[in-house]
Amino acid sequence: MMRKNILVIGGTGLVGKVILRILEGRNPDYNLFVGSRQLGNTNNDLVIDVNNPKTFNCIIQNKIDLIVMCTKDSNNEILQFAIKNKLDYIDITKPTPDLTAAYNLAKSVEQINSRIIFSSGWMGGIVASLINFTEPEKHKIQEVNIYIYYSVKDLAGKSSANFLAENVCKPFIVYRNNQPKKVKHFLDAENFDFSFGIGKRKAYNLDVPDLFILNQIEKVPTVSVKMTYNSKFITNLMGYFQSLKIFNIMFLRERQLLFGSSGNGDQTIFEVVIKTNDKIKKVSVQSSKGQAELTAFSTVLHIEKMLSNTLLSGVYFSHQIHSSHEVYDAFQDYSTINIKLT
Q: What is the phi/psi pair of residue 168, to 5°?
């Protein structure tokens, strides 16, 4: 069997490094390449600048089978390169507006001769898989609410902080009975009782791609996402800042500093509440090693699935390539992830 050549673009970043670590541990026969703007010190380090297509030649020269995007590619240069050169591609970094643009671009291509996977939903795009596992009768689902517990002590990459800094003043879309409704981050407080000993917390609006994926792709009529910080003080402060329009008078640099704090590591938790006409079900996930570990592990599951050669060419969201049982079982088996259904 030929060795698979996998290129992780943004492989020197926080999530990229963890993906490479987990891949190496689980699949020693994969040949792993790291793409970044700076030249590394091994033969498997490639100089790739997503804004400069002239740097993409090394992808062909090194016979790359699969490109994993862990860095922002706003112009979709790598996506277009992958489609044109019939290379498998998976992206885990796109915020909602960029994801919808990339998805529409890929869907507009007449014939795709590789597998194009969009995996930018929460924590590597595993929410929809967990929903499918928890409530297999998809047509019955009326409402999905996602609640996120985020610790400022967690290791955090730049991209999510920059996304919040750039978009905190802009409205985004949630869905109520299939009606798009414009809301803003850090408003519409709701009290939610978090599992794993966290307890009652005030949670505010957050824009994640699952809003689009669950309503537009999975046809769930009502979808919302809310988040709380580990510090009640910070959570309340963000609410005050938004309601008093203080974010609007801050410079972008100041907002980046505000959202950009990164600790040495802490747990992350998210919970998905699924409502049908007659039942409410909840799936709760805790990653004791934080967000990066959970996102990276989910991404590795997608990579392994893509390289198993059972997947036909086409454009997918990551939950569409697995059976939901596979994802649930993999989470159950992973030492630093706890998952429970109620």
A: -65, -25
Please give the sequence-ordered ranges of beta strands (E in DSSP) within 288-331, or none if there are none. 314-317
* Residues pairing with 115 in the sheet: 314
- Mean pLDDT across the chain, nearest whole number? 93
The pTM of the full predicted model, rounded to 2 decimals, is 0.94
For the stretch 172-214, pLDDT in tens is: 999 999 999 999 999 999 999 999 999 999 999 999 999 999 9
Neighbouring CB atoms inside 10 A of 276's CB total 15
Beta-carbon contacts of 282 under 8 Å, excluding residues fewer than 6 positions away, are: 134, 271, 272, 273, 274, 341, 342
pLDDT tens string 59-94: 999 999 999 999 999 899 999 999 999 999 999 999
CA dist 145 and 122 (Å) reads 13
Q: Is there a contact between 40 and 58 (Cβ–Cβ < 8 Å)?
A: no
* pLDDT at residue 157, as a whole number: 67
Vertex 111, ends 316 and 128: CA angle to 5°? Answer: 5
Domains of the chain with CATH codes: 5-123+293-328 (3.40.50.720), 126-290 (3.30.360.10)
Question: 89, 92, 73: which is closest to 18 by C-alpha?
Answer: 92
- Taking each helix axis as running N to C, give the angle between helix 77-84 and helix 96-107, from 0 to 180 degrees, rounded to the nearest 10: 20
How far, in Å, CA of 40 to CA of 57, rounded? 17
